[in-house]
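To close the chapter, one final illustration. This time we ask the reader to focus less on the individual chains and more on the assembly as a whole: which components sit near each other, and how the overall shape emerges from the parts.
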Amino acid sequence: MWWLKDVWVIDPSQKLSAPRDVLVKDGKVLAISDSMTQEDVLAKAQGESFETIDGKGKFIFPGLIDVHTHLREPGQENKEDISSGSRAAVRGGFTTILAMANTQPVIDSRALVEFVRRQGERAGYAHVLPIGTVTKGMQGTELVEMATMKEGGVIAFSDDGKNIQNAEVMRLALEYAKLTGLLIISHCEDKDLAGEGQMRRGVTSARMGLKGIPASAESVIVARDLSLAEETGGKLHLAHISTTESVKLIRRAKERGVDVTAEVNPHHLIFCDEEVGITDTFLKVNPPLGSEADREALIKGLCDGTLDMIATDHAPHTQAEKTRPFAEAPFGIASLETALSAVWQYLVLPGRISLDRVIEAWSCSPAQRFGLQGGSLVPGAPADMILFDPDFSELIEPATLVSKARNTPFLNKTLQGFPVMVWVEGRLVQRDRKVL
Amino acid sequence: MKWQRKDILGLEDMSVEDIRHILHTAKVMKEILMRPIKKLPTLKGKSVVNVFYEASTRTRTSFEMAAKVLGADTSSIAIAQSSVVKGESLYDTAKTIQAMRADLVILRHPSSGSAKFLADILAPGVINAGDGQHEHPTQALLDIFTMEENMGDLEGKNVVIVGDVLHSRVARSNAWGLQKLGVNVTLVGPPTLLPVEMEVLGVKMSHDLNSALPGADVVMALRLQLERQKSGLFPSLREYSQLYGLTTERLKKTGKQSIVLHPGPMNRGVEISDDVADGVQALIEKQVTNGVAIRMALIYLLIGGSGNVVA
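The assembled structure is written out below.
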């Protein structure tokens, strides 16, 4: 049992943001109240021993839920595996992560869905929940056995990494997925417009002679998929939104009542294309970093609820792969271990977005939309939660990262604001920045 | 002036002083190059390695000759027969060359930024012999040298660069370098090959060659990569050539005895007509000769030892 004294609790699911005492017992939140005495706690403990944590100056919030991670297992375990990825997750404050389906082989059958789930349970850190592909082999033509995969525990369907180019296939997916009640997640990228592009098309790409990806590569698919969701009444989730035009399209679709949610990645909220230098492969990401105006539109969209969630799009790669000329390096930023601190330091501290909104968008909303455990600390809820120390600072260096990957723009930089204790179902899995 | 550069990566971040110093040094080098016995002992014992990941005739040969005239030993890595085909990365290839104690590496590579990537890794100097669509500084320097040789100070002169600007490292390097010397540069091409974001180069842009030509002291035609037609960037060679091809007739529109440059290799009848290419206004062969002089100057400045100043 745990007694967290005098800690600031942020739980948007119960509109709570205040200093409280929190009791955790039998894997669940037992009680949250203004203050507790030793006698109160002893009475509730019913003979069980407990540890008392002084939470002064720190925050408790529901564990973060990341609906977009690439854990690379099966197939590319040199980049990451489910064990290392789920350890990185709890080190970064995530108690539930959704694993994208573009592994080798891709997750397009019940057997593979169950494999991912089982590997997550074996690792025993964050809850690892599988996303399945929409189409067999991610070929964009035939639908997977969605109902069967749901029995195996699939959480949502996505051909992420490879957009479904055929609009009719996307339309059918939105229709057929109604059988399962699960979301179709769109990767939002027109293959032809994106072409061989390496970064956002604009003056920076023009100056460096790097092939550009126009903003329309995203927004034309966002427009298409919103139309299809509206027409079919299907449930749509849009991954890694990065352009002003997409935010506008989503805002208008929501006004019309389209069943859509959207996520934004921390790096698109923090960086823009002008900051990308010609050898900065650690900022090479897909969708690419946009303009400063896009960054502002995304922050606004997240604050006003047009963008529902924050998700990392954790994309681990090896150092050798990233130590190449820009055009030859793979897209992606590994971010499970740094994302929360980066958002704290770059967005919350300067007052661009409230901590309450961050927790709502990174924990409560994902739980509600994807129908997951977590995202709330109401008494009786599983104790998936984190103790966040806003003053803790840390140098991001290879020696301390538990992810196999080091492709982060924060490498060898100091970040401030870290989770210092993390519980999954009441079990402490990270303490003082060390995974237990 | 004191020469402090380890590498030559591009003209965007090169100072006017450095550019002038290179041009001045190249003038001396050209005199040496024009001697009947053109061999100096200056760089005896120094090794220059050419690493060319793209096909090249003139640039590679030009670097080799430049190094040899100065007395350096040269080696070339032909990528088709190297470990690269076995999957060796540029990083490992570079480390290997460094371990062989090369003094200078000349890199031609299809990826923009590859020269800086290499320069950040290697202790020896790197000369960018063309990196993707980014920069081709030695080409721009030889172009500038050729212009100056023919018309003196370039301040206030008008240069029109016509063609596939978007994909051209030659255009980028020239735009940066010429502007620093006070030249009025106009880029010309169809909107697909000269999109609005090219404004980043800070020069005038036009889609109409005829209206850009009057007053031009120099017209530079860029090589058109013929396969770009397949990507839909222009509809046909016929229409391209009608709109942007350099012909005798069109050249008259400058109203001057303008000079014509082309970085080669030429697509005769596409971006440049035979009579212009072979005419008196074209200095294309001079460009090639001056290319050797410019590369001699750069090699000398980078590995020539203390002082690096020619009389």
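Chain B touches chain A through 28 residues (CB under 8 Å). Residues 144 and 178 of chain B are 7 Å apart (CA to CA). With these observations in hand, you are ready for the problems at the end of the chapter.
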